[in-house]
Amino acid sequence: MAEVNKVKKVPLRKCVVTNEQHPKMEMFRVVRTQEGSVVLDATGKVRGHGAYVCKKKSAVLASMKKKILDHHLETVVPENIYNEMLEILDKEGIK
Q1: Which of 16, 27, 13 is nearest to 62 (CA)?
Q2: pLDDT in tens, 41-68
Q3: Kind and range of the H or E run holding 60
């Protein structure tokens, strides 16, 4: 019997800023936890209500300016979350 190569499906998520779909692991996930705090989820496993932002500086800055994450998470997102995302983008050399 011939072997069948199984291709694993890559989970896609939609960016709340640009409405573009990207692979889940290529995006930032920001989560409002059950306690009400807002965290940047690097693992994708933090429990709570999450929103995805694509890894583009323009998307992060637009989200901060227009308060898009505040609207999606129904809470105020602290500025340090945005700063953390921008630092990660700088380290990875993404514009």
Answers
A1: 16
A2: 988 899 999 999 999 999 999 999 999 9
A3: helix 57-66
